[in-house]
């Protein structure tokens, strides 16, 4: 059972394999619903390594360090992020695990959520790209900065994505003038999106976040049916109008065979920066109710906060500029939950390949 456990020639482990087995059965990692799988553990003398198949940072080691017996070992973290099954099994998973971030309607902060999730996954040790699929209103160049830098085209006619704050980004906004409007019918916009996806020379990625346009129309259906998607994240606000559209988005993805990885309730509340009072100006727990009703994991309830808005307006996202800020920690926790849930759901469908 513990075939990966090994002992150093120079130093014996203070714990026997039986003790390790019993101790691991008592420990659960954050948001991981079962005890630590023994195959994730390697022990060499007094050093132990946890190897996880999803994005995570060293905080995941705390339950192991705090256990009376396991805490005797010196722990380190290794990531071996798995390539998971996708919605189009016949297509090669060239660009890592593809996560679409979608919303039933506009104005719920989908792009800002996409950016912060991508940056947070990077801070959790993953190689991350982000594709701006909102071809009618690309906003990633504003939120990530470098709007004046156009995408380069190599000799193979592939677009070279920009690297911003440690993640790779491709957007129509890096190809056009900021005031240009994409006056396209649905099929043309869908074709442009597929070309942007396939003709970007992405490096090796663990996750590719796709910031989808709002709605459940032609672009969304084309992307869902023709591109290999690992999972979808639904963004909504707590208000009734947004919730109804969020449920339509969930229904659409399920009909085309795309797993719903989770839901984020954005603008969950406004917190006064002066007195700390919280005001649920868009309603209370609406997104949480939809998640429960649809049996979708709730990945987080993010506040309406001027600091998040200001950072994105300046091309300096809070989670990148101030990773230890309480809001950044909250967003990183959502990203970690997303990575765990993506892997966990894949295990219930079929074994992952590494």
UniProtKB/TrEMBL annotation:
Gene3D superfamilies xref list: P-loop containing nucleotide triphosphate hydrolases (3.40.50.300)
Protein residues bound to ATP: 104-111
CC annotations in GO: cytosol
Keywords associated with the record: ATP-binding, Hydrolase, Iron, Iron-sulfur, Metal-binding, Nucleotide-binding
Cross-referenced SUPFAM superfamilies: P-loop containing nucleoside triphosphate hydrolases
Tagged with keyword Nucleotide-binding: yes
Pfam families in UniProt: ParA
GO biological process assignments: iron-sulfur cluster assembly
Source organism superkingdom: Bacteria
GO molecular function: 4 iron, 4 sulfur cluster binding; ATP binding; ATP hydrolysis activity; ATP-dependent FeS chaperone activity; metal ion binding
Database matches in InterPro entries: Mrp-like_CS, Mrp/NBP35_ATP-bd, NUBPL-like, P-loop_NTPase, YlxH/NBP35
Description of how the protein assembles with itself and partners: Homodimer.
PANTHER family tied to this protein: IRON-SULFUR PROTEIN NUBPL
Free-text function comment from the UniProt entry: Binds and transfers iron-sulfur (Fe-S) clusters to target apoproteins. Can hydrolyze ATP.
Recorded family membership: Belongs to the Mrp/NBP35 ATP-binding proteins family.
Protein name: Iron-sulfur cluster carrier protein
């Amino acid at each position: 059972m513990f075939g990966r456990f090994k002992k150093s020639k120079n130093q014996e482990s203070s714990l026997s394999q039986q003790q390790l087995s019993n101790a691991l059965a008592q420990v659960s990692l954050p948001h991981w619903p079962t005890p630590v799988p023994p195959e994730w553990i390697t022990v060499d003398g007094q050093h132990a390594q946890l190897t996880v198949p999803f994005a995570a940072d060293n905080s995941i080691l705390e339950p192991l360090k705090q256990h009376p017996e396991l805490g005797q070992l010196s722990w380190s973290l290794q990531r071996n992020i798995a390539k998971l099954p996708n919605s189009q099994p016949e297509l090669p998973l060239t660009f890592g695990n593809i996560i679409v971030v979608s919303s039933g309607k506009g104005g719920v902060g989908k792009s800002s959520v996409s950016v912060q999730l991508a940056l947070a996954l990077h801070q959790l040790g993953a190689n991350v790209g982000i594709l701006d699929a909102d071809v009618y209103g690309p906003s990633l160049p504003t939120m990530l900065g470098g709007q004046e830098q156009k995408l380069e085209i190599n000799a193979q006619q592939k677009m070279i994505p920009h690297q911003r704050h440690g993640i790779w980004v491709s957007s129509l906004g890096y190809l056009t003038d900021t005031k240009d409007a994409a006056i396209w019918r649905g099929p043309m916009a869908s074709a442009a999106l597929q070309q942007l996806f396939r003709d970007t020379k992405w490096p090796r990625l663990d996750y590719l976040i796709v910031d989808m346009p709002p709605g459940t129309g032609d672009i969304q259906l084309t992307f869902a049916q023709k591109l290999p998607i690992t999972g979808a994240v639904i963004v909504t606000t707590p208000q009734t109008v947004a919730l109804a559209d969020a449920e339509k988005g969930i229904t659409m993805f399920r009909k085309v065979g795309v797993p719903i990885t989770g839901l984020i309730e954005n603008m969950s509340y406004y917190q006064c920066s002066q007195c700390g009072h919280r005001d649920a100006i868009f309603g209370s727990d609406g997104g949480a109710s939809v998640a429960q009703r649809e049996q979708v994991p709730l990945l987080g309830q993010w506040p309406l906060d001027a600091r998040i808005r200001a950072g994105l307006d300046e091309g300096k996202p809070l989670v990148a500029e101030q990773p230890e800020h309480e809001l950044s920690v909250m967003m990183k926790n959502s990203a970690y939950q997303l990575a765990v849930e993506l892997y966990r759901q894949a295990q219930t469908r079929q074994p992952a390949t590494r």
